[in-house]
Predict the 3D structure of the following.
Amino acid sequence: MLKTCGDAHYRYLDMRDAEPGDRFFHLRHQPYSDVVTAIEAVEVLTVEKKTLQCRVEGRGKPWKLRRQAEHIHCYLADDPVFQQLQYTFTRAQRIQQAKDWVRQAPPERFDEPVLEAIERWHGTG
């Protein structure tokens, strides 16, 4: 059974006690950055002496992990740190989608009530 170790500043999953069927979440980052690009649901399929075979939701190919004590960027669903990270990630995605909609909208879509609402929200109206 997987367990979370560490403190509020440095959290990790201890994979030494992983069992088939264990589920966790992996945060994928942009290379050389702290920007999270995806949150992936992962399930442990098989446990070998030095490796774990895992299935990542949405991928066909199994993911091979080393069976070691510390795996950073991996969290259990009930971890409060992960819940906050997931909330922040999904909110940032929604904000980016809204920005894209506004950027791509034709000018005639911005009638007076829409402009007034944006100005009120921005604090300039």
